[in-house]
Amino acid sequence: MAGTRSRPPEGRRRASHSMEAVLTEAVALLDEAGEPALTFRALAGRLGGGVASIYWYVASKDELLDRATDHVLGGVLTAIEAQTGSEDPIDDLRVMAVTLFDAIVVRPWLAAYFMRNTDLQGNSLRLYEQIGQQTLRLDLTPRQRFHAASAIISVVVGTAADLGQEPPPEVLDGTVGRDEYLGQWAERWRGLDPGEFPFMHEIVDEFEGHDDKDQFLAGLELTLAGLRLQAGA
Amino acid sequence: MAGTRSRPPEGRRRASHSMEAVLTEAVALLDEAGEPALTFRALAGRLGGGVASIYWYVASKDELLDRATDHVLGGVLTAIEAQTGSEDPIDDLRVMAVTLFDAIVVRPWLAAYFMRNTDLQGNSLRLYEQIGQQTLRLDLTPRQRFHAASAIISVVVGTAADLGQEPPPEVLDGTVGRDEYLGQWAERWRGLDPGEFPFMHEIVDEFEGHDDKDQFLAGLELTLAGLRLQAGA
DNA sequence: CTATCTTATCAAACATTGTTCGATAACCGA
DNA sequence: TCGGTTATCGAACAATGTTTGATAAGATAG
After folding, report:
1. Cα torsion B10, B16, B22, B25: sign
2. Which helix (H) or strand (E) holds B83?
3. Cα–Cα separations (whole angstroms), residue B122 to A189, B73, B74
4. Which among A104, A93, A90, A110 is positioned nearest to A212, based on CA atoms?
5. What is the mean pLDDT of chain B?
């Protein structure tokens, strides 16, 4: 049986990872092609090692995604902390929400794992704390503060997830521009029965060529206006 | 080679499906154990047929999920249409949002595929239209109406997805009650440094034993208040 | 220096998944 | 009876997350 077993390849060296490297490469894969691109084999290839090695650092793919999420959330958090300090706590809340929103737009995979993330700890917890601290400057009850902070996070994540859904491949390939894509939907809606779909006809012109960021800002503003009203300011 | 090939089993009859049956069983599987429970093999087993047969009705799992989502959305839509007609359009909006929210709470898998659903048509389109029609009764610009309807959907789906995330297995198994589960988080937060986490200490009592529905209603009310303000009513 | 334990790596196998292929039954109009 | 469309199904395929057992490399103790 000698020779059957694969003898130690002399030229081949053992790879040496680190948690930092694993997370960095994982995030890179996620950024390049989204969630399905992050496979253990692709990640192992990037790290120049074997597949099973990754399991020394994380116990499962879920944990890998949790850690990757927390990893990038660290950057978002420092960006947010550097921008607080306005006179108006509502202005601060707006800035924080926008910063988080922008981060999710750049990394659409964040939204999905922001929700699936039951562990309110680490940077996720700190982010929640930062937003909540602004509500401490408003004249609210503890319960209202609890609801306000949660509502703002929901608005950001909900809108970002809704708008950040992957466009169909023909848009990603660049064969069809975004405007053209929106135009196709607009065209379809214009063909609907005006009696049955008066609203779609009302907004189809607005939809065509709309900006996602404006849509988010408008929704955020509604929540902030309600909050300001509630605080009696 | 005669005999090698599996000869037609005489007692075994061919199964006969239908699109309706496929979707019904698919929804049943999703309801019982969420998204991962819906596999083509499990579905085929329920239908008493072969795996490949399902591919005559749907081209992929994505399409299966889209159709299943649209299927249950039909029921939500009729429930919503039966409840409109209040004097105050904002009251109607609230009822519609709550109805949709309740449907997602019962079926947490809906939230995920509500967002991934790029095809704004079918019942999804009708639902959007129903919500939008209420904004027609408010004194708003077309753009404001477009943003308002989108914001409400985002609030509902975002909050439902956030709150409807699957609790850990120990809660599902019933070995640990929900109150006990919340209590464990509360305990952890109480151990945080009060100087660094003043907000968490402020709301930990509210969090313990809170109701998800109340949390949603509070967030929704903020958006509706902002909307009412914008409409100048 | 040697022995031993811990840390870290890896190839290979395993189970499960979505999907495709080719065959073939069941029905139906001519 | 024939031919074509509709519908079903077993078997195989490729890709995935995960486990196993072996083993190298480094640190630590004797």
Report:
1. negative
2. none
3. 12, 9, 9
4. A104
5. 90
Q: Which residue has the tokens 């409807």?
A: B164
Q: Rounded distance, CA B57 to CA B66, Å?
A: 13
Q: Can you read off the two tokens belonging to residue A147?
A: 């609801």
Helix/strand/coil percentages in chain B, nearest 5: 70, 0, 30
Structural domains present in chain B: 14-57 (1.10.10.60), 73-233 (1.10.357.10)
Instruction: Give the residue from B199, B193, B104, B145 showing the smallest Cα distance to A152.
Output: B199
Q: Rounded CA gap, B98 and B132, in Å? A: 15
Determine contact, residues B33/B8, Cβ cutoff 8 Å: no
Query: What does the alpha-carbon distance between residue B223 and residue B229 come to, in Å, rounded to a whole number?
Result: 10
Residue A104 CA distance to nucleotide D1 C1' (Å) = 66
Structure confidence by residue, pLDDT tens digits, B151-181: 999 999 999 988 877 777 667 677 788 888 8
Spatial distance between the Cα atoms of A153 and A163, rounded to a whole number of angstroms: 15
Selected residue of A130, A189, A223, A224 to mutate for chain B interface (largest B Cβ count, 10 A): A223
Q: Roughly how many angstroms between the first and final C-alpha of chain B, as a whole number?
A: 83
By CB neighbour count within 10 A (0-12 exposed, 13-18 middle, 19+ buried), where does B143 fall?
A: middle
* Amino acid B165 CA to nucleotide C27 C1' distance, rounded Å: 47
Q: Which of B66, B118, B115, B113 is nearest to A171 (CA)?
A: B118
Sign of the alpha-carbon dihedral angle for A149, A159, B154, B131: positive
| Protein-contacted bases of chain C (C-beta within 7 A) | 8-13, 16-22, 24-26
CA distance A44 to B133: 52
Q: Within 13 Å and on the Cβ side, how many CA atoms surround B7?
A: 6
Q: Regarding predicted confidence, which is higher, B84 or A172?
A: B84
At B109, the amino acid letter reads W
Question: Amino acid letter at A61?
Answer: K
Q: Across the interface, which of A154, A221, A225 has its CB nearest the CB of B159?
A: A154
For residue A44, the number of C-alpha atoms closer than 13 Å in the C-beta half-sphere is: 13
Residue B127 vs residue A13, higher pLDDT: B127
Q: Do B216 and B161 meet the contact criterion of CB atoms below 8 Å apart? A: no
Q: How far apart are CA B215 and CA A143, in angstroms?
A: 9
Residues of chain A with pLDDT below 50 are 1-11
